Amino acid sequence: MKVIMLAAGVGRRLYGDENDHLPKALLRFGGKTLLARHLEILGEHGIDEMTIVVGHRKDDLLTEAEAVVNALGMGEGFLKSIFNPRYEESALLSLWTADAVMRSGDDVLFMDADVLYHPELMGRLMRSEHRNCFTMDREFEMDDEPVKIYLRGGEMYDFGKQMVNGYEGIAEWPGFMRMSPEIAVKVADAVQVHIDNDTELATYETAMRDVLVSEPAGTFGYEDITGIPWTEIDFPEDVTRAEEIIFPQMEEFEPVSRASGE
Q1: Which of 22, 66, 176, 249 could serve as a FRET partner for 260 with CA atoms 20 to 30 Å apart?
Q2: What CATH homologous superfamily does 2-10+18-252 map to?
Q3: Are 102 and 190 in contact, with CB atoms under 8 Å apart?
Q4: Structural domain boundaries of the chain?
């Protein structure tokens, strides 16, 4: 399995349009950067190759990544990087730069870099029986910001920030998913369509949704990670929540066995 991690953005919603702050992946909680936590968790699950897409202050990100990889003894070939020269424009362009990884013929694990989470979240995804699998949390604040997963008849049928009708279940997507080689190629194709149609400012979730809604029901499964502490870091209040609520919860959390979503 290959990993694609998007870490190129400038963090506008956290720091403002014009800023030179360190990337969000280098925020520290409990003395460790988010990036270091990601790498440690991936190492525990036997991942042997990760491609990180960088842009804003890329040298700082790669210095940290290389230091952690070396400290963990992950091997010379573990860490790969791709620079997105248009990192200020959209995350869809970052995913586009990783096109070769998406078309590599391997399973692909996609992940955002700006998430603090208990390792059990990744464990649920890695242990899943679903070849194509989203993670989802049923406990969230219903507004326009969360990327939402919509369920009907126990199956995913829509995905994105937009509100849709007719759902029987709804949950938030934490930003992690795994794809079979076939679906990874279809997502790469959907990204390319947006590039070709000059809609590259669309979100990468839009390309994922394009594939989800065009595939037969049951192509995508999900793992319900409700109750596992996690938070995405987008706004200043998210940093405070991560420090004061999520990180303490992570230290106290004890995983329990749960069945895969059906």
Answers
A1: 249
A2: Spore Coat Polysaccharide Biosynthesis Protein SpsA; Chain A (3.90.550.10)
A3: no
A4: 2-10+18-252
Q: Where are the beta strands (DSSP E) in the chain?
A: 2-7, 28-29, 32-33, 50-54, 79-83, 108-112, 115-117, 133-136, 148-152, 155-160, 169-172, 176-179, 221-224, 230-232
What predicted TM-score, i.e. pTM, was given to this entire model? 0.94
Q: Tell me the HSE value of 13 on the side-chain side, using a 13 A CA sphere.
A: 10
Task: Note whether 148 and 170 are within 8 A (CB).
Answer: yes
Pairing of strands 148-152, 115-117: unpaired
Give the distance, in angstroms, between the CA of residue 138 and the centroid of all CA atoms in the same chain.
17
User: Which amino acid is located at 233 in the chain?
Assistant: I
Number of H helices, E strands in the chain: 10, 14
The tens place of each residue's pLDDT in the chain, 262 residues long, gives 999 999 999 988 888 877 889 999 999 999 999 999 999 999 999 898 999 999 999 999 999 999 999 999 998 899 999 999 999 999 999 999 999 999 999 999 999 999 999 999 999 999 999 999 999 999 998 888 899 999 999 999 999 999 999 999 999 999 999 999 999 999 999 999 999 999 988 999 999 999 999 999 999 999 999 999 999 999 999 999 999 999 999 999 998 865 444 4
Tokens 């042997």, residue? 48
Q: Which amino acid is at 182?
A: E
The CA distance from 2 to 49, in Å, is: 5
User: What is the amino acid identity at position 37?
Assistant: R
Give the phi and the psi of residue 41 in degrees, each rounded to 5.
Answer: -65, -45
If one counts every other C-beta atom within 10 angstroms of the C-beta of residue 243, the result is: 15
- Spatial contact of 5 and 61, defined as CB atoms under 8 Å apart: no
